[in-house]
Amino acid sequence: MSLPDIQLFLRPGIIEFGWGNPDADLLPAADLARAAEIALQRRGRQALSYGAEQGPGRLIEALQGWLFREEGVSPPAQQLFVTGGVSQALDLICTLFTRSGDVVLVESPVYHLALRIFRDHGLELAPVAADEDGLRVDLLAEALESLRRRGRHPRFLYTVPTFNNPTGMTMTVERRRALAALAQSAGLLVLEDDVCHTLWFDAPPPSSLWGLAPTMDRGLAAEADRRPAPAGPIVRLGSFSKILAPGLRLGWLSAPPEFVQRCMRSGMLDSGGGVSHLAAHVVAEFMELGLLDVHVEHLRAAYRRRRDGLLEAMTRFLPPGCSWRAPGGGFFVWLRLPEGCDSGRFLSQAEAAGVSYVPGNRFCAGEGGERYMRLAFSLLSLRDLEEGIRRLAGLLESNEFG
Amino acid sequence: MSLPDIQLFLRPGIIEFGWGNPDADLLPAADLARAAEIALQRRGRQALSYGAEQGPGRLIEALQGWLFREEGVSPPAQQLFVTGGVSQALDLICTLFTRSGDVVLVESPVYHLALRIFRDHGLELAPVAADEDGLRVDLLAEALESLRRRGRHPRFLYTVPTFNNPTGMTMTVERRRALAALAQSAGLLVLEDDVCHTLWFDAPPPSSLWGLAPTMDRGLAAEADRRPAPAGPIVRLGSFSKILAPGLRLGWLSAPPEFVQRCMRSGMLDSGGGVSHLAAHVVAEFMELGLLDVHVEHLRAAYRRRRDGLLEAMTRFLPPGCSWRAPGGGFFVWLRLPEGCDSGRFLSQAEAAGVSYVPGNRFCAGEGGERYMRLAFSLLSLRDLEEGIRRLAGLLESNEFG
User: Fold this and answer.
1) For residues B176 and B133, what is the distance between their CA atoms, to the nearest angstrom?
2) Whole-number pLDDT of residue A228
3) Residues of A in contact with B63 (CB under 8 A)
4) Per-residue pLDDT for A114 more than 80?
5) Average of pLDDT values for B194-211?
6) Pairwise CB contact (< 8 Å): B21 & A49
7) Residues whose CB falls within 8 Å of the CB of residue B185, separated by 6 or more in sequence, listed in order
8) Confidence class of residue B232 from pLDDT cuts 50, 70 and 90?
9) Is the overall model pTM greater than 0.80, yes or no?
10) Which residues lie across from B108 on neighbouring strands?
11) B247 and A273: CB-CB below 8 Å?
């Protein structure tokens, strides 16, 4: 048997709501092939040498321009840092800014695999609940105070405020302002996982936390403007995984300049140069060719159709007692089951009936989430989305989830 | 001012013996461009999706074949794991197998930037001296015993046994056997940094420590043979940085199957899939095109000429009291200065005179190395190698190193 090339493994006969992957049919393979060829033919020496620790200057400039077109505001160059995607960025941050046994605050529910990265670093996870308006900043203040009384200072807060994974919810502007202010006053580093910010379907989401940080000197969009700017303690994590291709292992972060400097001075980067350096050159070329903006528009339309198809099927087929909210972007719907249902306990029965999902409690650092499941719509056809919901509805109606 | 794309920064007027980088003129940019185009055109969906945690199966198969052609023995697939280069591999190993405050043993002198990675993880470094026959295994046994008496167990030993960075020396077969046996009996994990194994100039070096591990079931070259094999506690770290291109950020490790499994189960890989996945596909394509073996031959000849040119200039120009040994491969010569010289103290004077190097003490976790300097010949033309040595000789004769 050959070893697999890729991570995704689809089981025949099962409609997999579990995988939150971009659809491979939506990867711009031909355009990336062209960008790779140009990058290596014209700038092969740069693309194949040890990369600058901060990431290639040409990608940082392309990112500044793109973020400005998308959001009307862009970090100055010394506040940008190229990563190997959010997972690698979280890993690097844990290495440089935490020690085993430290406590960190995590939104709950939140992206479950980030929790695995934190656990690999021996971190203790303290959950802070969210509701449909995002992280409960009042509960965050309580958690900080409770930790303080025990003589502990959390190293950071991890949150996904926009099109949250798994809930699809987006933090309100009021909550964002409150969180940015609390972070500033409490000296709390906030890791804002913002991978889906650009993948909105109805209207652009509110400004990132980074953009709202109280001491952030904004309006630094002009390419010529590279003066040092004061910055709040927000680290925003972006990625090309959802908007271009996950195999690139490429992302970025925006953060205060001293944070970026510490990342650049890491032993791993001093030794090996910038991570994902080849992919960084390919994507810089792709962006310089003007291909990213139109591609993102195309993705928004494609994923919007899937979200709408899923929601329509849920409305039509799911029995009373189920509830959900329409996400404004991203890849996920967070389904609440009727009282007494436990999504974890009945996963194997669901898979036997030809439908799968991720049980809600996996996204909670502590207790909770048992009555929920995460449904990803990014990978499935409209037909499969409908058929998968039919199967789920059949199980729920037969009370097999009870 | 534009931000740089690459890490290398050459100062005008200074001959830089300090950078141990491959020469950009020797990077196979055109062939890698072709490989990238083919990989993305024909297998774009695979190359751009989340990669298998172990690395793409096609690269693992290509690696098995290549290692067998080079060394006559190849790890079974379940003992191979694709990395983002040695730096990333060391970082991952520190995350998964150590905790801040742990002690690790490091050869001395040894690759200085690996020491920075260990320090980022809060590890305490205990040096073990090497001589011209490699790591002193007798001193290693003493260090283990001394730590044991203090109730401490080192998490690993880090060593560069073949064409050592910085010394160029290669551990003898007898020492290798003794080290492999001691590691086995003491339950000591050995990280064998073997990046230059293939870059020999006169004759192939002895078998890797991995190949000598007492319980290693060797002779597993046949592609069909994938049965689980017992394995010694040696982790061998290989890389494409020196033999293809450092910007690829691609390497591999061979290790016991349970070690590979633990790496594959890391949160970072679960979340992001295999690291350097795009580069892995490009290199697999390059290898399947049959381009690697001839390229490595070409590199051996090119770097051999530079080593010979450097040694010739050293013999001609350096004053009495200097000594060195010819390295059989790799990128470095370890120059011992006359008594009373301190290479660190006089670096700035040397640079003012138009020549630079890395002072020897940077490669030593504890004291030592002050009388040495590392001269890298990989990046310099024959003319610069000679002129650089002339400048060094002038300084030494004027006693400015005193």
Assistant:
1) 10
2) 34
3) none
4) yes
5) 96
6) yes
7) none
8) low
9) yes
10) B129
11) yes
